[in-house]
Amino acid sequence: MCKLFLRLLLLLLVRVGFGAEQLVWREEFNGSKLNTTYWTPEINFVRNVEAVQIYTNRPKNLMLRGGHLILTAHNEYFESTNWKPESKHWWESRKAANYTSGSINSKGKLQFRYGRVEIRAKIEHGRGVWPALWLIGDNPGGWPSCGEIDILEFVSQNPKTVHATLHYTKNGKYTHPTNPYQAKKAIAGDWHIYGMNWTPEKLELTFDGDVIFTHQLDQATQNDGKNPFRDGVYHFIINLALDGWAEAPVAADYPRAFTVDYVRLYQDCAVEGTTLLINGETPSTKTTQRATNQKAKHKTTPRKKKKEKSRTQRFIIDTSKMDKKEKHGTERIQPDSRL
Q1: CA distance 56 to 66
Q2: 168 - beta bridge partners?
Q3: E strand or H helix that includes residue 266
Q4: Cα atoms in the 13 Å half-sphere on the side-chain side of 248
Q5: Of 75, 130, 257, 260, which is most buried with the most CB atoms under 10 A?
Q6: Are strands 96-101 and 53-55 parallel, antiparallel or unpaired?
């Protein structure tokens, strides 16, 4: 009886204190300005040889309101601030676009390997919209060798489809395992939780808590033993693109918005290789402890938030007090190597 009690006690300690998954970072998008400690707005032409759309950091394209990040695409002529007509690079030689939109990334600011991600977002349907929640590996070699994880891609011509995909190079050959998941009804117009479960063994992508894609990471191991999903760290990209492999945008449908409620990252520090970097450094124990002792304010309903002094909180949180609310076809347009 005594031995059984000790075993149960040890199991309980492991569950609540050691080896347990904890919320280590979150972005609730409270406040009125994007927290540039973790995020960088993307501007001008960035990727996929954009033909019709350009990114800006103007409030009409990228803003925080009501506890949400709102990326809005507009039908309007807009010239690049980086235009160089003699340049051989398409992102510099292209002068202007007829649509504007918004995009942010956490490159060099928030990077991680392994963990569980939850992103609550809502898509507004319009012909030509191509919103995405994804991660790019900060690994040498450029795309696709660096690795890419697409938690969500939505293209307007497939209103019930969540495109969940990985991109990487296997022994010099580009590969992109995918699962175009068919929801029961149109995705746009409702809030959904798009997620990822990433361990050293496998990577799962989820939609409203259901696993819709699974990939064993051994399948990405090269002949030399390297693996883009085990060797490097990744950063977030949240963007509302247009056209691409979506249908062509129709001016009458715009403006259209892509709204994100929150981004949350959970990690188990007992999993070997688990990494969290803030501005290139591992958060200190003291910083984590101070934050743990703070009284966190959490959402009480899925759609309403209380304002917080800190828009983004990086710390371990008692998740028991939180509420329960909770790109790709085979013809991919290759991004440039600056990702």
Answers
A1: 21
A2: 175
A3: strand 256-267
A4: 5
A5: 130
A6: parallel
Give CA–CA dist 236/39, Å, rounded: 9
CA distance 85 to 127: 31
In the numeric block, the tokens 């909770």 are attached to 326
Q: What is d(CA 176, CA 219) in angstroms, rounded to the nearest whole number?
A: 11
User: Would you tell me how many other CB atoms lie within 10 Å of the CB of residue 14?
Assistant: 12
Answer left, alpha or beta for residue 266, where phi above 0 means left and psi between -120 and 50 means alpha: beta
The kind and range of the H/E element at 33 are none
Name the pairing type of β-strands 62-65 and 178-182: unpaired
pLDDT tens for 201-228 read 999 999 999 999 999 999 999 999 999 9
d(CA 231, CA 168): 13
Q: Is the pLDDT of residue 330 over 80?
A: no
Token pair, residue 199, equals 């361990």
Helices (H), 83-153: 90-93
In DSSP terms, which residues pair with 112 in a beta bridge? Answer: 234, 276
State pTM to two decimals: 0.82
Q: Are 335 and 244 in contact (CB under 8 A)?
A: no
Contacts of 257 by beta carbon, 8 Å cutoff, 6+ apart? 70, 71, 72, 73, 124, 240
Give residue 284's pLDDT band: very low, low, confident or very high (50, 70, 90): low
Q: Are 244 and 92 in contact (CB under 8 A)?
A: no
